[in-house]
Amino acid sequence: MYLKSIEVQGFKSFANKIKFEFHNGITGIVGPNGSGKSNVADAVRWVLGEQRVKQLRGGNMQDVIFSGTENRKPLSYASVAITLDNSDHKLPVDYEEVTVARKLYRSGESEYLINGRACRLKDVNELFYDTGIGKEGYSIIGQGQIDKILSGKPDERRELFDEAAGIVKFKRRKSMSVKK
Ligand code: ATP
Ligand code: MG
């Protein structure tokens, strides 16, 4: 499984529709300060269901919508779609390729889609359990996060090992059935 592309439109500094395409191997994103490098990582976090605005470096969720520049009007929505190659079926679905998309309007209306089909945030979370990819996963290591892991509480650190060991879904299922 690997990330094939990230498509953004109206997300943060990306007013126009842009598609970043990746191939197997390492890709570096370089550019001057303030050119939008971190916004690319934010887009991935966001589409994976990030709800904490602080993690997205904003004051409220609508701050991810392109807010305009001197010569460009603000946009009314932000949209991000990532496509993953799933030919090894690490994601528990039959598709060879999985596209996860999220869209947010200024009105607050929002939607998630998996392969073009509307779904809940819960479905997106479940898709990525135990893959290390979800918003709580370790596939995006932000600045200062290593420190947090090293100095974190034992149960927070345990979550990371559970995810890597692939037992998160069983724990979630257990707590769901206990609740019922
Ligand atoms: P650095 O090298 O300093 O880390 P960077 O390339 O990571 O820089 P980002 O933090 O990704 O830069 O981008 C910051 C830019 O994104 C700022 O110019 C900011 O104005 C712009 N930006 C953030 N949110 C929005 C928004 N909602 N609408 C328009 N522009 C935005
Ligand atoms: Mg940055």
Automatic annotation (TrEMBL):
<comment type="similarity">
    <text>Belongs to the SMC family.</text>
</comment>
<feature type="binding site">
    <location>
        <begin position="32"/>
        <end position="39"/>
    </location>
    <ligand>
        <name>ATP</name>
    </ligand>
</feature>
<comment type="subunit">
    <text>Homodimer.</text>
</comment>
<protein>
    <recommendedName>
        <fullName>Chromosome partition protein Smc</fullName>
    </recommendedName>
</protein>
<comment type="function">
    <text>Required for chromosome condensation and partitioning.</text>
</comment>
